Amino acid sequence: MRRRDLLASTGAMLALAACGRPASTPRPPTLVIGKASDSSSMDPAITTASSDFAPIGLAYERLLRFVMRDGQPTGGLEGELARDWRLDDDGRSWLFELAPGHRFDDGSEVTAEAVRFSFERCLSIGMGVAQALGGLERVEVLDRYRCRFRMAVSMPIFPMILALAPMAVINPAVMRHARDGDLARAWLSEHTAGSGAYRVTGWLRGQRMILAANPHAAQPPRHFQRVVIKVVKDEAVYRTQLAKGDIDIFESVGPDAVERLAAVKGVQVLEQPTPLVIALVPNNQRAPLDDVRVRRAIAHAVDPAAIARSLVGGHASLIHGVLPPGVPGNDPTIPLVAHDPVRARALLAEAGVAAGRTLGLSYVQSSAASDAVALAIQSQLADVGLTVRLDVLAPSAMGKVRQGDFDLTISSWYADFPDPWPIMKFAYNSANIGDGLNLARYGNPAVDALLNRAEMTMDQTERLRLYGEAQRLIVADQPMVDLFALHGLLAVRRDIEGLVYNFWQPGVYNAAQMTRKDGAA
Fold first, then answer.
1. In this structure, are 325 and 195 located in the same domain?
2. CA quadruple 53, 56, 59, 63: dihedral sign
């Protein structure tokens, strides 16, 4: 038996536990997941932070989930609580039929009323996931197992939104814990009330969270009856604990730790592209960056591959077009912008930009990586005759960038699910200029028309065609320089079998389907 952390955290509790059962009684098979930071809340209506997704993903079910293949989402969906779903006759609302037999951890059945309660609670609270439910007017209960999501407008991507980790269905019985009209927010921040394979039974903040099998789950765990989510911040500590088997999975692996972890016996590092993109963003409405020749010159001057090697050891993918790998519509036939300083200088001269022209690069110093990217860009643009003045901003000062008071900035964005919509709508539609989403302040009426048509089109083939046409127009305009998409890294002990990890939804684990090779606890 390998060493495991016990549920108790004090000597007195250990003594009581020992008195309660014979010493020879085996502990339930336990999966230990290590992470660098603690959860902040377990209320699905409140949080959109991936650090909170592990307990939510284990304790709750959603109507739908993403279909995975080789560690990547395919863009397809399958039912979790739902056994059928379709577009309603009005062309914009969605009908869902639940599969009978799913039960919350108190034994009560998951019904259409629970679905209505969960989503209308989100809308009432108006935080976190409510932002993704902006087109939802209300949820109607048709009968015990059928409900209708009434949408204000047509939203082809709405089923994908319902597959996101926080779109959980909650037991309406939590309202007995409501206080002062809080819709049970205080209680749900530290407890779970779902129909998933597990339920939270203890949380020692800053140290560990314990989940036990839900005795009423429709699909009980195959092997692991208990999951411990353990906070370990130091790399040397989590590397040692992985080697000893005290941790089975560690989810906060940094690029510089990959080689050291790969050398640990019994441990492997899984790596997959994610839709987390780092970009250099020019202000398309400010001279001389309003000239496409200048933006193209900057794209030729910057060397994303060199920055990725230096910053993350190459654990990143370069981007063909504007859609990163894994997003339907990603087009590898669109050539990468060549690193070509000679061409960059020629374009700047053609645009009338004199050598030594100064541009400001405004960015938030969120980490040493931010400085590294900024310094690399400063050096590479200097090679083509542009002087870059670094303007380090406090997070509270980012409002000036959102309002358009900048020349260049560094940004990161994330596609929440495998579809072009989250990227195309928010980064490139001129309707989002000025609200902090279309940071480049880019606008092209032809692109807007294509994006608006795609957003309202139900046929997936036609949607992708429209997005593909828009993508090529955007590439020609060069509104941003997408540097690279970061890779996700996960350290896993080799005796863990059945792990299906979606790097698009970090922190969500299929623990109920996982087993251990040697059968040890």
1. no
2. negative
Q: Do 410 and 390 form a contact (C-beta atoms < 8 A)?
A: no
If asked whether residues 280 and 219 sit together in one domain, one would say no
Q: Do 505 and 446 lie in a common domain?
A: no
Residues 238, 369 within the same domain: no
Q: Rounded to a whole number, what is the distance in angstroms from the first to the last CA of the chain?
A: 7
Which two structure tokens, joined as six digits, stand for 56? 């939510």
Nearest by Cα to 281 from 220, 367, 359, 354: 359
The answer to whether the beta carbons of residues 482 and 322 sit under 8 Å apart is: yes
Phi, psi of 449 (to 5 degrees): -65, -45
Residues 227, 309: one domain?
Answer: no
Which domain covers residue 224, as residue numbers? 11-266+494-516
The Cβ-side half-sphere exposure at 103, using a 13 Å CA radius, reads: 13
CA 384 to chain centre: 36
* Residue 474 to residues 203, 207, 292, 467, 477, Cα–Cα distance (Å): 48, 47, 11, 10, 5
Q: Which residues pair with 357 in a beta bridge?
A: 386
31 is a domain residue:
yes
With respect to residue 2, please indicate whether it lies within any of the assigned structural domains. no
| Partners of residue 500 on adjacent β-strands | none
Same-domain pairing of 334 and 481: yes
- The domain that holds 108 is classified in CATH as 3.40.190.10
Mean pLDDT by 10 residues, the chain (521 residues): 33 34 64 93 88 93 91 85 95 95 97 98 89 90 98 90 94 97 96 97 95 96 96 92 95 91 93 92 97 98 96 94 90 95 98 96 84 95 97 87 94 87 92 86 97 91 95 97 94 95 89 85 56
* CB contact at 8 A, 361 and 409: yes
Do 336 and 457 fall into the same domain? yes
Q: Is residue 140 part of a domain?
A: yes
Nearest to 310 by CA among 497, 483, 113: 483
The number of distinct structural domains making up the chain is 2
Whole-model pTM? 0.86
**Of 94, 97, 84, 86, which Cα lies nearest the Cα of 151?**
94
Instruction: Name the one residue in this structure whose structure tokens are 């039912």.
Output: 79
Kindly state the tokens that stand for 40: 């902040």
* Structure-block tokens of residue 4: 């495991």
Strands 30-35 and 249-250: parallel
User: What residues contact residue 503 under an 8 Å CB cut-off, 6+ apart?
Assistant: 71, 72, 272, 273, 274, 487, 488, 490
Q: What is the CATH number of the domain that holds 299?
A: 3.10.105.10
Helix-then-strand count for the chain, H and E: 15, 19
Return the pLDDT at 5. 34
420 within some domain: yes
